[in-house]
Amino acid sequence: MTIRPELLKNIRTTEPYVPGEQPQEKVIKLNTNENPYPPAPGVEKVLRTMDTDRFRLYPDPTAGQLVHALAEFYGVDDSRVFVGVGSDDVLSMCFLTFFNSEKPVLFPDITYSFYKVWAQLYRIPYICPGLDEEFRIVREDYYQENGGIIFPNPNAPTAIYEELDFVEDILRHNPSSIVIVDEAYVDFAGKSAMELISEYDNLIVVQTFSKARSMAGMRIGYAVSNPELIRCLNDVKYSFNSYTMNQTAIRCGVEAVKDKEYFEAGVRKIVETREWAKKELAELGFVFPDSKANFIFARHPEYDAGVLFRALKENKIYVRHWDGGRIGQYLRITVGTPEEMKTLFDFLSEYMKK
Ligand code: PMP
């Protein structure tokens, strides 16, 4: 059945974001940049002692315990922290709150594809400056008039990290715009722009528990900025849905933040495996920009990416591939455990012998 035109004209139709596959069977899952290791041990303990009687009650709408734990972790006041249901929720609220101009919002043409979806959904005009030949963001493109700026650092799916002088340059050229730095992968990379928040009143830094903290399934993300912008964000959030974060996620999040040692050790393991994986991939003939994330964006000059993607999938090794365009010949490979990566490399070397 099709929707009649007179009904359709009043409906907000949109082309949704397409998340990576979540197969229910057991596969080597290197397709959605999850962490292959479990979350901090304290998280399991919390789950075992959850008082289900509390489930009768609404959760704390401010998610105060989690906000406080994060504020302590970064050594800032609670008023500088906003939490949400994954950074997707936080970013979506940021688009709604801060990108409210007739002028176009700027984000790279090759980047997290959700940005375009939110811009379209909220009817925010946008321009997507192209990455250069090496897939780098061209800073001068962000000197033009705009209604806000957002980019991930490291960028996705390229995995390229830009140093903080790059972020500062963009901030300095755009004192009248809100600049959002999406740091979903920064723990695997280098310095966070978090250290710039007291210096630039137009900066918002967004991070997630989904990658370095191994908690994609719990859906926790957060933004750090100045108290005034955080208040604007909360005002919009409370006008949308007061109880976004459930009690379980709040408690688990607090436990994860407390265990700094486990977090740092986990990051080190992924970075080590990534550096080894780069050598293996290069030996197999792959080329890729230098990754500073928990994934590698690689192309093989002699093999079609779509064909490779399907061959891997048939053998229960899932990576990510986007059809067509400038990235159509690339595979985005999440860094898994050394064992998972070895299975991938063994498969590829056999495949390439044929
Ligand atoms: N930003 C970027 C750049 C991402 O790749 C992702 C993961 N898909 C997210 C944000 C959202 O992550 P989450 O909602 O799990 O925090």
TrEMBL record:
It catalyses: L-histidinol phosphate + 2-oxoglutarate = 3-(imidazol-4-yl)-2-oxopropyl phosphate + L-glutamate. One of its GO terms (biological process) is L-histidine biosynthetic process. InterPro entries: Aminotrans_II_pyridoxalP_BS (IPR001917), Aminotransferase_I/II_large (IPR004839), HisP_aminotrans (IPR005861), PyrdxlP-dep_Trfase (IPR015424), PyrdxlP-dep_Trfase_major (IPR015421), PyrdxlP-dep_Trfase_small (IPR015422). It comes from the Bacteria. Residues 26-346 form the Aminotransferase class I/classII large domain. Keywords: Amino-acid biosynthesis, Aminotransferase, Histidine biosynthesis, Pyridoxal phosphate, Transferase. The modification N6-(pyridoxal phosphate)lysine is found at residue 211. Coiled coil: none annotated. Its cofactor is pyridoxal 5'-phosphate. GO terms for molecular function: histidinol-phosphate transaminase activity; pyridoxal phosphate binding. Its EC number is 2.6.1.9. Pathway: Amino-acid biosynthesis; L-histidine biosynthesis; L-histidine from 5-phospho-alpha-D-ribose 1-diphosphate: step 7/9. The keyword Transferase applies. It holds the Pfam family Aminotran_1_2. Homodimer. NCBIfam families: hisC (TIGR01141). Belongs to the class-II pyridoxal-phosphate-dependent aminotransferase family. Histidinol-phosphate aminotransferase subfamily. PANTHER family: HISTIDINOL-PHOSPHATE AMINOTRANSFERASE, HISTIDINOL-PHOSPHATE AMINOTRANSFERASE-RELATED. This is Histidinol-phosphate aminotransferase.
